[in-house]
């Protein structure tokens, strides 16, 4: 069943709620929904409801809430809060990362301005990019039936990232030089110590990779550098590897 | 350092070898290599050599082997042989799967003709697709510094797949209904029993998913259906999740 998020905190059975313009277009035009078609609606509080299409008002889909769906947050969402911080890659790679990392359970995406970035986001371009990434995160969260939409943070530079990092329990760097050195056990050690509810921040380079100086500065600030295995991964593959390994470790292996 | 595969079984120090037309173009035009520029060359036997550019003959890069590089197969390649069998998705999704799964250690890709495929590969189209996927696998293997190039099998239907599956030790189905049912421990159980050197075959649906009848037919033939965690993954994300979890389990967690 199709799922959409609505910008409402609480919903009650019988209440009517409208989908956003974008979601209405998707539900009515792309999915060709007819009156009485059922759909899952998730509130801002991450609560899931069964609803049905009752009216179309100025091209917007109006739904009526039928019942609460018993989907527990912990049965869909990762038990830890993961922020993926990435250098800026060209083309649609950042969009691919946001889409796939959302499917894989990311809680927040933070675009990072690093030395070897192949593109720059300046002024209005940054705002437009962040708005676009927010839409992609919402769409991907709906498609993968998540209960929360990952937040897209503003563009940070390295020092702003380090300042922000004080609010995280675990701070990691995915550093490709570690892929070559053969020291692969760090990530498994970190994952084994997780109790649940930790806030994890992971830094990935852009296509150009991280500079050694940036890695050293992050390590000084308490970040631990980790290998993601022995093969060199592309910028857009590394975050997916990380989240898949984390999901396997916490959701498949520990149950 | 750039890496290229050459269609030669054995190489000796001092020997000269030419890159293929495609690789020559990449090395000379895209990377703008100059004479004496060093490069890694991998033979068909999966042996890695340091080489340098000594001549350009009719637009082809001629390299001279400088020395053997001590890269052990097991330090780069997954300890198990994984065949990823996928239904046919539209656009470039199959290409994305082949590229990313190559980075993540896949040994073979098998395109599958299933009931709910959104596209069909017929006659010459299938041949052209397979040739294109072979090129993508080679490029991705070079970029991720692998020692083998994943093979692209011919298009199989379900019964041909089942016939082929006799040569595999472990046969799995990634079935999204399992994502919803909350039974997530099967994959970890399978991974824990691996000794190394097993041949693993994993079936993924296309964007349209697998039909229940197809899953039942595969289960009759000894395939085990597995969950890839509680979130619904897109067709092109699921194989990457699988390979990342496998790599984490065998290469990061067991060392």
Element layout with pairings:
2 copies of one chain form a homodimer.
Chain A: E1 3-5, E2 16-18, H1 21-30, E3 38-42, E4 48-57, E5 60-68, H2 73-76, E6 81-87, H3 93-103, E7 108-113, H4 124-143, E8 151-152, E9 156-157, H5 158-164, E10 170-174, H6 177-181, H7 186-192, E11 199-204, H8 212-220, E12 224-226, H9 238-252
Parallel strand pairs in A: 1-3, 6-7, 6-11, 7-8, 7-9, 10-11, 10-12
Antiparallel strand pairs in A: 2-5, 3-4, 4-5
Helix pairs in contact in A: 3-4
Task: Describe the 3D structure.
Chain A is of the alpha/beta class. Helix content of chain A is 35%, strand content 24%. Chain A is built from 9 helices and 12 strands. Chain A has helices at residues 21-30, 73-76, 93-103, 124-143, 158-164, 177-181, 186-192, 212-220, 238-252; strands spanning 3-5, 16-18, 38-42, 48-57, 60-68, 81-87, 108-113, 151-152, 156-157, 170-174, 199-204, 224-226. In chain A, the strands form 2 sheets. In chain A, strands 6, 7, 8, 9, 10, 11 and 12 form a 7-stranded parallel beta sheet that branches. In chain A, strands 1-3-4-5-2 form a 5-stranded mixed beta sheet. In chain A, helix 3 (93-103) runs parallel beside helix 4 (124-143). Chains A and B meet through helix 9 of A and helix 9 of B.
């Amino acid at each position: 069943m199709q799922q959409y998020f609505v910008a409402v905190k609480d919903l009650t059975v019988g209440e009517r709620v409208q989908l956003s313009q974008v979601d209405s277009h998707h539900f009515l035009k792309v999915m060709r929904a007819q009156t009485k078609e059922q759909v899952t609606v998730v509130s801002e509080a991450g609560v899931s409801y069964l609803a049905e299409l009752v009216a179309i008002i100025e091209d917007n889909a109006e739904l009526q809430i039928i019942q609460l769906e018993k989907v527990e947050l912990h049965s869909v969402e990762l038990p830890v809060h993961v922020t993926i911080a990435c250098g800026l890659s060209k083309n649609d790679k950042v969009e691919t990362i946001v889409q796939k990392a959302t499917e894989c359970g990311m809680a927040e995406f933070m675009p990072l301005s690093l030395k070897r970035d192949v593109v720059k986001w300046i002024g209005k371009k940054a705002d437009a990019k962040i708005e676009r990434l927010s839409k992609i995160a919402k769409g991907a969260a709906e498609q993968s039936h998540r209960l929360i939409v990952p937040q897209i943070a503003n563009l940070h530079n390295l020092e702003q990232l380090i300042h922000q990092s004080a609010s995280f329990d675990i701070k990691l760097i995915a550093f490709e030089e570690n892929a070559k050195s053969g020291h692969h056990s760090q990530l498994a050690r970190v994952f084994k110590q997780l109790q649940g509810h930790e806030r994890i921040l992971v830094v990935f380079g852009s296509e150009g990779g991280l500079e050694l100086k940036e890695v050293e500065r992050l390590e000084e600030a308490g970040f631990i550098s980790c290998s993601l295995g022995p093969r060199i991964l592309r910028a857009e593959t590394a975050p997916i590897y990380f989240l898949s390994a984390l999901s396997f470790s916490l959701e498949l292996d520990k149950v």
